Please model this.
Amino acid sequence: MSWSSVLIQFLNGLASASSLFLIAAGLSLIFGVSRIVNFAHGSLYMLGLYTAVWLSDRVGFWLAVPLAAAGVGLVGIFIELFLLRKIYRAPELLQLLATFALVLIIKDAALWLWGPEDLLGPRAPGLRGAVELGGIQFPQYDLFLIAVGPLVLGFLYFLLKKTRFGILVRAASEDREIAAALGVNQRLLFTGVFALGALLAGLGGALQIPREPASLAVDLTVIADAFVVVVVGGLGSIPGAFLAALLIGEVKSFCIGLGFSKATLVIEFVVMAVVLIVRPWGLLGRPAAPARAPGGSELALQAPGRRPLAAGFALLAALALAPLAVSGYTVILLTDILIFALFAASLHFLIGPAGLYSFGHAAYFGLGAYGAGLLALQKVPLEGALAAGALLAGAGALVFGWFCVRLSGVYSAMLTLAFAQIAWSAAFQWDAVTGGSNGLVGVWPGGLFASKTAFYWLALAVCAALILAAWRAVFSPFGYALRAGRDSPLRADAIGIDVRGRQWLAFTAAGIAAGAAGALYAFSKGSIAPETMSIQRSVDGLVMVLLGGIQTLTGPVWGAALFTWLQDAAARSIDYWRAGIGVVILALVLALPNGLGALARARR
Amino acid sequence: MRILAILLLGFACSANSQTIKIGELNSYKVFPSFLEPYRKGMDLALEEINNGGGVLGRKLELVVRDDGGNPGDAVRVAEELVSRERVDVLMGTFASHIGLAVSNLAGQRKVLFVASEPLTDKIVWENGNRYTFRLRPSTYMQTAMLIPEAVKLAKKRWAIVYPNYEYGQSATESFKKLLKKAQPDVEFVAEQAPPLGKIDAGAVVQALADAKPDAIFSSLFAADLQKFVREGNTRGLFRDRPVLNLLAGEPEYLDTLKDETPEGWWVTGYPWSEIQTPEHKAFREAYQKRWQDYPRQGSVVGYTAVHAVAAAIRKAKSTDTEKLVEAMKGLRMPSPFGPIVWRAADHQSTMGAYVGQLSRKGGQGTMVNWRFADGATFLPTPDEVKALRKAQ
Model:
């Protein structure tokens, strides 16, 4: 690289950083005030992109950008008023589920509105060409973008430091309860902040049209990057988000410039992992004020009485006899449901009793699948491969967990995500061992378990045993210690519970269970691809747990059953099945904020 | 109650029907720009066949499913098609890894699988099996079709950019191998492998320019291609530098470039408006009449895949899987691109592609100087293939 190309790559990094900052800033603001992890932020960005492309044909580029941003801001107001406002009091993370449903709905709405083809927007009038810097052509528009980032930062700084609205926002970010006690109108504040965040996302999208086409895949690629920037910078910190965007923009740009383009698959997650390990609250973040009355709204889990126990065993018996009554495909679907029930139950064990959020649980599912698959291809018998897969996942969880239990809340969750992405990229790129993007094929169960029915019984035995073991553990001294550590870490520590040690153990145990689920999954599908440990798989697990309800014991099993069945049924019968699933999830969120499991409890 | 009635009715219908079922699964929601035209092509072929009396006196029926865009769901959907819908043939898939997973299942469950679109070489070679046949010209074939143009350019220093997954990797590998063979003094001076759908185009363009290549080989497509083209145009990467780009001439990707379309790039693609062979004219007119829209590459693939299944059933005079597999081997049939043969040696069809140069015409991209490259001429011989398909 010559010096002039170093300069150009530096500027490239700055331009990407500006774009990253715009969406991350909105996400950070929303989280800071309302504690909502807005999964649909990438979808708002996508809406901004599409709207601006569409408008620029009609009113010209420079008018289209602010109009699109304002339009997305309006959509944000609409979402806040008619959806989020109704569920602020719901258990934590439920808002995540609601915004996940929005992702599905907005994607299908965009497909319906703008069609399947990518739409390449116009260049910006007045900034079409390039300027020459050190003998190299550099786009004028990128120079403009480089300026936009600091301008927006300055504007937000002014807004937050110098206006009454900003003071209220900061007060609410600092301590929501006190702000409310002082008579701050929270409803108005939340709506305002969500609208501002949405507007910034829309602006970020609209400003990208000279650089990237509007396409339906953009929402998910953007949201992952935005989360990373927000967390690296420190949740709720706008200058932190700016700094993080700069860091990540530059690191990526120089990875490419120095010829390590393959590293860009995962580099932002590596950066995030390193930052979080060194600075647990991000670059400029601060530890959150301790929430008052922790777990106050939650009912303590009760050990099931005799009647629910009897009902559970009856269900188990019915499942065992099911293959005698139903046709071939139902057995296959039931096998899937069992596997995901185990996966969801293992995740629930972390989120529920242990109070550890995980956004990257698919890592252990995938490690189990790859471990079992690799051994099966070496002709290791199925039983051995299953056990080894689960143990490999446990080993992974042991290593990753050691770091993750040292952080708390969303930071810990994002570190799990970073590790999952690192594991995923290893599977994706390590062609010689994992088969690269194609994965491994030909992992079929042989001998005794070759038939679908026999394999179903195996899956039932393994899943039921592990799920029951997890439930049993919740009511063991270990489980009580975990729950004590979750509800009041200080008091638990004071009475001599090694909270981190217990959490680490729980993390590893959950990893083993997820690994067993993954190993079963590999054998039931006959092939494994890197998708088994993708973000999508982790999100699916979260959705199952949240649908079922965090504060219930059996919830994740119901959630897994419902979600798997929904995907199967909806994808089969309707064209816009993604939106269909989204609508069902939204309906459930509004009707049953405590999840399906709570329904079972209410009946009792 | 009403739902129950509908269910019963549906059950009764399917129990009475004598249709021959094709189970089609694809990532309709992940790659809609290719697969919506694909679906229209399938429907057109289905109507043609059924209006002509069906096959073996029975109507053909398509059972279409979304495969969720990942191999795990795809395998489940395929199982559903086989065990619940009792389809006679499986068809479809887009991405390589999904194609391979379904192909493996087809081998396991002994069902005929006509892989219409996945481009991976492995599906017919290393991982090929008795029950899988593939329609599209593979990554290897399409790369080989561009090699004569690369050799004619007589450039020494090449830079390569490709999406970092199976398709891009194997295109790059084949390109390097084939060009090195034809032109031993060639040098590959830079390689950029951005993640699929996430190219950081400005930085990639600068990194390629740093290597001062004489020419560029790219296998980017869709959004990555659009970003690359725009940045490259603005930053002058393509000035006096020939570029070869797989797939960029397919309407799915070309049409979105509009006035950014780079002049003179050598590409594989589908100049739909200019092909005047009788078989293509008939196809284009029927398609436009049916859909009031012009055909894309996906339309041709979907259309031909359905006709291939019908032709195999006619030849086998049966829907028995083993007989169908034997019928597919060496099956000759017409297609909008002219007659094709399904090779017995590796189960690859000889469908070709069009090789030409990109050009702008009235703010739209088109292909000029194009010629048809017959797939048969770009495939290894049956003996070479036998070595590749060692497992079988």
